[in-house]
From TrEMBL:
Originating organism: Kinneretia aquatilis
Gene Ontology biological process terms from the UniProt entry: tricarboxylic acid cycle
GO molecular function: oxoglutarate dehydrogenase (succinyl-transferring) activity; thiamine pyrophosphate binding
Location of the Transketolase-like pyrimidine-binding domain: 597-794
Pfam families attached to this UniProt entry: 2-oxogl_dehyd_N, E1_dh, OxoGdeHyase_C, Transket_pyr
SMART domains for the chain: Transket_pyr
Name used for this protein in its record: 2-oxoglutarate dehydrogenase E1 component
Gene (name only): sucA
Lineage: Bacteria, Pseudomonadati, Pseudomonadota, Betaproteobacteria, Burkholderiales
């Protein structure tokens, strides 16, 4: 047994880091370790260092070996009951046992309300594993490195305390945290309580009241609305008690806003019993009597809600985010919303606004966006001061999964260990333990500003959506569930045995709640109906506005030159890279009107003019600071400084006195979570220009759920406007299938109900005007910009100063060549994007003076009036051709052909010029790309063939 101990214990073998960590802490600061360890390590300083040094130069391997072999009386004699060397050795073994319970005690915790699983065999939790026998049980050992309350305790007392603390209704995981201070915090809080929270009789009755409400709502709905989906919380009622405690404790700690994200399970219960939605309103939705004032609407268990509730610390605003059926996708949306609210308040540490995410066990372990969102938790651009995660762990997953098929980890929460978040697993049938665990979680978050997880292990009484029969695949589990009296009954009986409440009193609670349901009354007391925070988001100026393309976005010459001078004047002590120096020198000349303005300067001046006018800007994405194609250089790094903070200068933060903030963030390598975050941010901050830029437009594929379920449909489903901007580099440059297309066709397919704007600007002035238009118009719609790559530096795409100081965004740009005579035009080529410049060069090559070229810069909403006006200029044209770079089954062709046809003149024919239909967005061979490009240009000027529409 001793050999096994030496190989596997937490002091030796593969777990030697436990000793090493303690020893490293001692070397850093001897006072940071317990006295008995410090005395022992003091003795180890006699071990010779390999390089002749002292202190921290002592090698670890001899230390670890010495720790086992050289336990001396002077190390533990003061704390142990005997100076005998054998007892000193046993003291070492006791320390190993304590460490083992801190690491692994959760595996023996009594977590399952159904009591199905046998206790796993974990030798390290058995004193015999360390050669500690029954004869040692009444020997006193040092317990000074514990918080059980005694300097010395008998081994029997130590084992009992360990099992009470780490193997009761709460199983804790915190030893994976590398911060010694955090580990000590958890040890103190858990070990002082020994797993037994203390509540007054009044507090216990309140917990019972919350359980009664949770169960009461589900049973009321189950009997009144038979067969309707509601994703019942039955079996997990303690979750409502946990939410109640979270809100009250948050309020006492100064939290003023809580933003909640959760999927279906228990959502209706949270709406009524936590946020205080009127039951009558919920019943109206079940009975299809609710007002239907949205173009599409959504099912009731996707709906969001907000309210204000009273706590002992003051009013707390609660907001439940709208959520689609894509489970964990709401996580980053909540985090973005929270970050916006925190910044609006100046809440730098997250003490005033709290994110809460509620997960299902299978989704938490299985959905990749969980990991992506966790990855952002401690970053500068996305951190929110710690999120409280709650898992409603029904042990069965989405439908009726075998636990062996759900995941490859011990716990569904193991993914959070990547950010060293502590986890409290708790038995849902012990509501006091659940509430206590929530107290610990809230206190930890307040102390360390980091994520924490409460995993409520419960069960699901009914099928996934009340319409399936889980016993078909889980017969034994559902026999246990059928025999279970319910958490409320279990707890009520416990309180009756304690004389806290009698059976009649518990039954009266049930009757009172049902009476409230019958009357459709509030179940949360008190809900504040007239409270309004000064930090509340005001969307009213942007709602109910009529769509318009027009907006005066020109900038006066004097203001242009003033801002350009500020933007391009760099600090004298800043040593910029030679390429950056040249770029900013050129931009200074552009600002003075000496040369045409390129794309990067046009974009930068749009930003400068907006922040100078009081509009904050938040721009994020992979390589957003410099721009993937190095056109932006919004952040300049001093070449003589290596520190990211000290060596970075952001010109757009220095363009005007009292300007609005400009923030640019190089994001984590994620699309889905980051785009979801920015959507959430924009949803909470309509006065900020919020932009997400994809490294390549194709990468938006990884965020398609956010695009489909939030950006495209959020307004028609939930009535939630949003002004998020997506910049998606798009263009066929011969770079292969993953670096060409931003999948324009997907956005076109999603476009309806004036839900978004899809533009493809082709000049520097156009990007300037469209960015300014996004903020200056008094309504908010998502803006999708197909940004170019080669045009970023193309001379043809530059614009003279006059195009910035006059005019606005042009949804359609007509023929620009004055030598093209309108009355001689026989064919009009209509296009969008970079291919325009290829067409112009081809026309020059062919000397085709009877061909006019029109650019559609706004593809949706399609600018019918502007387009029709251009077509009418060419009454002699008999042919129109839509030309695009993309394959025929992609790009805008299938979606704009009807718009073009609608505005054609009688007798005109419409044809297509472009790549043939393809399963891939682009070819990967450079020579084939060139052949296809030549072919589509020839088609544009050649005879119409293939699919032809006639007006």
């Amino acid at each position: 047994m001793m050999q096994q101990y030496r190989s596997n214990s937490y002091l030796f073998g593969g777990n030697a880091p436990y000793v090493e960590e303690m020893y490293e802490a001692y070397l850093d600061n001897p006072g940071s370790v317990p006295d008995n360890w410090r005395a022992y390590f003091d003795a180890l300083q006699h071990v010779p260092a390999t390089d002749g040094g002292e202190g921290r130069d002592v090698p670890h391997a001899p230390v670890i070996e010495s720790f086992a072999q050289r336990a001396k009386a002077n190390a533990f004699a003061a704390k142990a009951s005997s100076a005998d060397l054998a007892v000193a050795h046993k003291q070492v073994h006791v320390q190993s046992l304590i460490a083992a319970y801190r690491f692994l005690g959760n595996r023996w915790a009594e977590l399952d309300p159904l009591k199905r699983a046998e206790r796993p065999k974990i030798p390290e939790l058995d004193p015999a594993f360390y050669d500690l026998t029954e004869s040692d049980m009444d020997i006193s050992f040092s317990a000074s490195n514990t918080y059980f309350g005694g300097e010395t305790m008998s081994l029997r007392q130590i084992v009992q305390a360990l099992r009470e603390t780490y193997c009761s209704s709460v199983g804790s995981e915190f030893m994976h945290c590398t911060d010694p201070g955090e580990k000590r915090w958890w040890q103190e809080r858990l070990e002082k309580a020994r797993g037994k929270p203390t509540f007054s009789a009044e507090e216990k009755r309140h917990i019972l009241d919350r359980l009664t409400a949770a169960e009461g709502l589900e049973r009321y709905l189950h009997t009144k609305y038979v067969g309707q989906k509601r994703f019942s919380l039955e079996g997990g009622e303690s979750f409502i008690a946990a939410m109640d405690e979270l809100i009250q404790r948050a309020g006492q700690r100064g939290v003023q806003e809580i933003v909640i994200g959760m999927a279906h399970r228990g959502r209706l219960n949270v709406l009524v019993n936590t946020l205080g939605k009127m039951p009558a309103d919920l019943f109206a939705e079940f009975e299809h009597k609710a007002a239907e004032d949205l173009p599409a609407g959504d099912v009731k268990y996707h709906q969001g809600f907000s309210s204000d509730v009273s706590t002992k610390g003051g009013p707390v605003h609660l907001s439940l985010s709208f959520n689609p059926s894509h489970l964990e996708i709401v996580n980053p949306v909540v985090e973005g919303s929270v970050r916006a609210r925190q910044e609006r308040r100046g809440d730098k540490d997250g003490s005033q606004v709290l994110p809460v995410l509620v997960h299902g066990d299978a989704a938490f372990g299985g959905q990749g966006v969980v990991q992506e969102t966790l990855c952002m938790a401690q970053t500068r651009g996305y951190g929110t001061g710690g999120t409280v995660h709650i898992v409603i762990n029904n042990q069965i997953g989405f439908t009726t999964s075998d636990p062996r098929d759900l995941r490859s980890t011990t716990y569904c929460s193991d993914v959070v260990k990547m950010i060293e978040a502590p986890v409290l697993h708790v038995n849902g049938d012990d509501p006091e333990a659940v509430v206590w665990a929530m107290q610990l979680a809230m206190d930890y978050r307040a102390e360390f500003r980091k994520d924490v997880v409460l995993d409520i292990v419960c069960y699901r009484k009914l099928g996934h959506n009340e319409q399936d029969t889980p016993s078909l695949t889980q017969p034994l589990m559902y026999k246990k569930i059928a025999a279970h009296p319910g958490t409320r009954k279990v707890y009520a009986d416990k309180l009756a045995a304690q004389n806290v409440v009698d059976a009649a009193g518990a039954d009266e609670m049930v009757k009172a709640y049902r009476a409230a349901m019958d009357e459709g009354r509030h179940t949360v007391d008190p809900v504040l109906t007239n409270f309004k925070s000064k930090y509340a988001t005001d969307w009213s100026p942007f709602l109910g506005k009529k769509w318009t393309d027009s907006c005066d976005t020109a900038l006066p010459v004097s203001e242009w030159k003033r801002l350009a001078d500020k933007l391009t004047t760099l600090p004298k002590d800043l040593v910029a890279h030679n390429l950056v120096q040249k770029l900013y020198a050129d931009r200074a000349a552009m600002g003075r009107g000496e040369i045409n303005v390129d794309w990067g300067m046009g974009e930068s001046m749009a930003f400068a003019s907006l922040v100078a006018s009081g509009y904050p800007i938040r721009l994020s994405g992979e390589d957003a600071g410099r721009g993937t194609f190095t056109h932006r250089h919004a952040v300049i790094h001093d070449q003589n400084r290596s520190n990211w903070d000290e060596g970075a200068y952001v010109p757009l933060q220095h363009v005007a006195e009292g300007q609005a903030p400009f923030v640019v963030i190089d994001s984590i390598l994620s699309e889905e979570a980051v785009l979801g975050f920015e959507y959430g941010y924009a949803a909470a901050e309509p006065n900020t220009l919020t932009i997400w830029e994809a490294q390549f437009g194709d990468f938006a594929n990884g965020a398609q759920v956010v695009i489909d379920q939030f950006i495209a449909s959020g307004e028609v489903k939930w009535g939630r406007a949003n002004g998020l901007v997506m910049m998606l580099p798009h263009g066929y440059e011969g770079q292969g299938p993953e670096h060409s297309s931003a999948r324009l066709e997907r956005f076109m397919q999603l476009a309806a109900d004036n839900n978004m704007q899809i533009v493809q600007p082709t000049t520097a002035s156009q990007i300037f005007h469209v960015l300014r238009r996004q903020m200056l118009r008094m309504f908010r719609k998502p803006l999708v910009i197909m940004t170019p790559k080669s045009l970023l530096r193309a001379k043809d795409a530059t614009s003279p100063l006059a195009e910035f100081t006059k005019g606005e965004f042009r949804t359609v740009i007509g023929e620009q060549d004055a030598s093209i005579s309108a009355d001689k035009v026989k064919r009009v080529i209509v296009c969008s994007g970079k291919v325009y410049y290829d067409l112009v060069r081809k026309r020059e090559e062919k000397k085709a003076s009877d061909v006019a070229i029109i650019r559609v810069e706004q593809l949706y909403p399609f600018p019918h009036k502007a387009f029709a006006a251009e077509i009418k200029k060419y009454p002699g044209a008999t042919e129109l051709v839509w030309c695009q770079d993309e394959p025929q089954n992609q790009g805008a062709w299938f979606f704009v052909q009807h718009y073009v046809h609608e505005n054609m003149l009688d007798g005109q024919k419409l044809g297509y010029a472009g790549r043939p239909a393809s399963a891939s967005p682009a070819c990967g061979y450079a020579h084939l790309h060139q052949e296809q490009q030549k072919s589509l240009l020839d088609q544009a000027f050649g005879k119409l063939k293939g699919f032809i529409l006639t007006k």
